[in-house]
Amino acid sequence: MKDNNCAYCMQGELVAKFGYPVCAMDTGYLYIFKEQSKPGRVILAYKDHVSEMIDISDEERNAFFADVAKVARAIHKIYKPDKVNYGAYGDTGCHLHMHIVPKYNGGDEWGGTFQMNPDKVYLTDDEYEAMAEQIRAAL
């Protein structure tokens, strides 16, 4: 099922406002979060338009979390964070997705909850593509 108003379902221009495409995964689509105050921050969006983890089977949920872990391993390998935070939000954008957010001791928001859209650091398309290539290679 797709929702024509959902950035993750429609991909293209809607998701391009905040995400840069990396690749399709077994259970969804991986994007670099364009705001990069935490280098390596990405989003894994579930392949179907569902709102909650309880809307998918146990097997689908386990596969989604396996993809989350696979992405986290790649982020650890490339960016060497001190900790990765995970966030599943969506009060207004009701499509199951997981923010995978590297955190660095002494860095932006260390010791606290990461902001959704801090609006501090943006890169060029060439820089996003270089990140995407690194992530693809590490997956």
UniProtKB/TrEMBL annotation:
GO molecular function: catalytic activity
Any Pfam family matching the protein: HIT
SUPFAM superfamilies in UniProt: HIT-like
InterPro entries: HIT-like, HIT-like_sf
Domain annotation HIT: ranges: 39-110
Motif (Histidine triad motif): 95-99
PROSITE patterns: HIT_2
Protein name, per record: HIT domain-containing protein
Species per Swiss-Prot/TrEMBL record: Hungatella hathewayi WAL-18680
